[in-house]
Design a protein that fits this description.
By secondary structure, the protein is an alpha+beta fold. Helices cover 32% and strands 18% of the residues. Strands 12, 13, 14, 15, 16, 17, 18 and 19 form an 8-stranded antiparallel β-sheet that branches. Strands 5-6-10-8-9 form a 5-stranded antiparallel β-sheet. A 4-stranded mixed β-sheet has the order 1-2-4-3. Helix 5 runs antiparallel to helix 8 and helix 10 runs antiparallel to helix 11. The structure holds adenosine-5'-diphosphate (ADP). Adenosine-5'-diphosphate binds next to strand 3, helix 4 and strand 10.
Length: 522
Amino acid sequence: MTPLTLPPGLTEKDFNDALAEFRRIVGDQYVFTGDALSAYRDPYSIEDDSKFSTPAAVAPDTAEQVQAVVKVANQYGVPLWTISAGKNHGYGGAAPRMAGTVVLDLARMNRILEINVDSGYALLEPGVTYFDLYRYIQEKGLKLWLDVPDPGWGSVVGNALERGIGYTPYGDHFMMQCGMEVVLANGEVMRTGMGAMPKSNAWQLFKYGYGPYADGIFTQSNYGIVTKMGIWLMPEPPRYRPYMISFQREEDLEQVIDVLRPLKVNNIIQNAATLRSLLLVAGINATRSQYHSGPGPIPDSAAKKIMADQDIGMWNFYGALYGPPPLMDVLWGITRDAFASIPGARFFTPEERRHDNDVLKHRALTMRGVPRLTEYSFVNWVGGGGHIGFSPVSPINGKEAMQQYIMVRDRLAQYGFDYLSVFAIGWRELHHVIELIFDRRDPEEKRKAYEVFGIMVREAAEAGYGEYRTHISFMDQVAKTYSWNDHAQLKFQQTLKDALDPKGILSPGKQGIWPARYRQGG
Ligand code: ADP
């Protein structure tokens, strides 16, 4: 069992007094200590767990309770780490950045406050998971689609706040966010955008309101606790056609990405499509040991066998068409012709895939917003499935994608890891999300994963590639790579932090932003 770390600077008595206050606010059964805290560990930590341990968790049920908890936290100097569903796996899960931080668990605040079908939006509390919202929409027979990440057990609010992605045309979750209610570090509650006007009925319709636009500073941030959020939902289209295109050669990556760019920038590809590497796709249906038992990354001969067995390519593009059939026919014609210029490209519909458990059959559901867990099984590619996400951003440019791919593939190979990745195609950029898969029972594997990850962050930054999001173990390192003009942005973020949260109680260290209290001397 990990030894208990108390919040820095607190005596055991102060800590216990604060917990007693929390109990008074939320009820005894919603303050967790001891064994119950195992739910707040990062299951995929690659460092000593004690670095991210929490001494307690508190689970309020209303924004008023959140305000009361924050006031007590200020009074005693108790740091709080906010989570919604706590499934931020690969980036730290529910665990806090700093040992001794109490987890503020908002899972109980799971009310669907409003759904407007005509205007296509929902107003949600943070604990509403994709599964909850999907079930609600199905039960009511509403003609709306969600946009879900894979897997779908997280919360709509937590994912949008982390600027996560999905796979329908609404795949950029923060872009689809509209209006927030936020409890600030001083215990006050505010509403953003049109929500700041008491009688406005456009809170979930117009994002910007009046004056400086605030919502962005509450994403990937420790400036506030979001207690309500609006999210735009896609009207169910008349028809839908998912497809897959496989490419046979490693070096095809360059051409695939260059073909993609004009298709995406001109909106011919309607959705947040993805290009998936061989092993990420293969890992849904197979494990490494079926193909290779020795150390080091899998050899080319095994890769060829996997391609043949699963009828997949070195690279596999998953996209979808949405709308009336004549529109889809036109878009598909342009897309197909463009990709057909790549030798060996093969085109599939879900019906044309042989295996029942084929990835296109799963993605056909994901790309229409059905939340699932199936495609998470790639984490079992090696035994003892652990994973951590390395996620640099680049232009949609073939040469740069190739450069990133070779850089990461070779570094991982040097440390004995396989390359499993997805290139998620954004509006103007690629999120190159590499899943570093390791055996979490093996301390040496974890040590190697930690070492190679740090090297990759440094090398990516030297080449101009920054992570869009990262694991708690690397938040400081990644923050320091955004260093233009003597870290001007980080200094601005720290200035805001100190103004909004002078006692430094909200999520210290989140995204490398430390309050003055913990910066000094460190
Ligand atoms: P998910 O809902 O996808 O499981 P988490 O609950 O793990 O996501 O949240 C991911 C991260 O987003 C957290 O570590 C936290 O930093 C931030 N976060 C989550 N919910 C909130 C919230 N309601 N207010 C502010 N930040 C939040």
